[in-house]
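Thread amino acids onto this structure.
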């Protein structure tokens, strides 16, 4: 069984997915990390981030591996762990350029679909494109100001700068970031992190909540 949690940038997708996955006793998958890792490698190799052939050639010679652990995801490039470098402001700025490339999206989707279920998958198009047959789908939103206030604890920039960057990224990500028709949309603005997790758990089918998570 697959549960998808999509949403706009900094809406709480990875924190919420981690909490839901822990409650269900399954791993969670943070799909954005693969886009971020592709961006980091492109920046380090000084590639044109608009060039899918250049990026994909580099990714094939320097393969990435997503490790979906229950306590958080890690990304490896051969023996090097990239995880701590994936949330820098320079990756934030470049990743939307990389994420619109259809060839890169197909590369990410193939990696995700190869992972063994059950799991919770978070991103932008988990419920619409990658796992359209998921057993339960959620989509998280919050105003740019609230998201910027939350993110300010994790970035060196001030709230107005973060808010402006989030609005810009929302615009760039809009094409691939829309709720599935059968997703439950949750405004996380008035909710605590645990409040969002409990809202989702309460809406899951009973067989999932009781820990009887089937593998397909
Ligand atoms: N409901 C909430 N109340 C308060 N803080 C929250 C809530 N949800 C998430 N946060 C905080 O907001 C920040 C962003 O959350 P998180 O990284 O999970 O979002 P995300 O959607 O995965 O981000 P990104 O799109 O950049 O991957 C974190 O500091 C997290 O602890
Ligand atoms: N399924 C996904 C996941 C992520 N992206 C894009 C959107 C963002 O620009 C970037 C990083 O994602 P985040 O870590 O902020 O969730 O990757 C996407 O297009 N599709």
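Threaded sequence (216 positions):
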């Amino acid at each position: 069984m697959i549960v998808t949690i999509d949403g706009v940038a900094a809406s709480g997708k990875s924190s919420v997915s981690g909490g839901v996955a822990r409650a269900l006793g399954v791993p969670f998958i943070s799909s954005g990390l693969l886009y971020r890792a592709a961006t980091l490698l492109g920046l380090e190799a000084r590639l044109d981030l608009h060039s899918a052939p250049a990026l994909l050639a580099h990714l094939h010679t320097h393969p990435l591996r997503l490790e979906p652990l229950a306590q958080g995801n890690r990304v490896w490039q051969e023996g090097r762990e990239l995880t701590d470098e994936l949330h820098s402001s320079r990756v934030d700025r470049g990743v939307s350029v990389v994420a619109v490339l259809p060839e890169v999206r197909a590369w990410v989707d193939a990696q995700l679909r190869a992972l063994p279920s059950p799991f919770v998958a978070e991103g932008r198009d988990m419920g619409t494109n990658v796992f359209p047959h998921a057993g339960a789908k959620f989509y998280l939103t919050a105003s740019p100001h609230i998201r910027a206030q939350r993110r300010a604890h994790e970035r060196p920039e001030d709230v107005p700068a973060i808010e402006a960057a989030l609005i810009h990224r929302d615009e760039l990500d809009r094409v691939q970031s829309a709720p599935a028709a059968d997703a439950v949309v949750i405004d996380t603005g008035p909710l605590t992190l645990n409040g969002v997790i409990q809202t989702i758990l309460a809406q899951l089918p009973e067989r999932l909540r009781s820990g009887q998570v089937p593998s397909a």
